[in-house]
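Hi R.,

Quick one: here's the GPI inositol-deacylase winged helix domain-containing protein sequence you asked about.
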Amino acid sequence: PSYSRLAKHVLSWITFAKRPLTTTKICCALAVESNEVELNLDNKPNVEDLVSVCASLVVVY
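And here's the predicted structure, written out as tokens:
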């Protein structure tokens, strides 16, 4: 996906999560395609990419 699309997806998952997400969980959530029934790990983004596209809006502890 494009950087802006990836950033929107990351921020949406973080915003609507009921509890804090681990980096593993957010990456797996982003790897899920809406038209697929199985997780495709080839779609799993790197944590560094998530932080980069979200600039200073996302911090990993």
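The chain has a mean pLDDT of 90.

Cheers,
M.
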